[in-house]
Amino acid sequence: MPGFAADDPVYLDGNVPMDALFNALMEVASEVWVLRDRFAVLEELLDERGSITRADIDLHQPGPATRERLAEERRIFLERLLESVAAAR
What we know:
By secondary structure, the chain is mainly α. It contains three helices and no strands.
């Protein structure tokens, strides 16, 4: 890594294939989203039932309000992620 300044970090020297880096970023982002989605299900079920099993989580179908909230959170998450990519241009 070439080093960086606190106000303008530079992590790569330009010799990295950007498509591959972006693909890796999107893979990590999708995994993060799966975790956030699963935590939302966990929280909802724990609020409703107090205790749950793995099957409860796997079989749970979120209600309309939860689906809507998660869709908005996903939109914001992707917007933040892609803003950082666009800012690098």
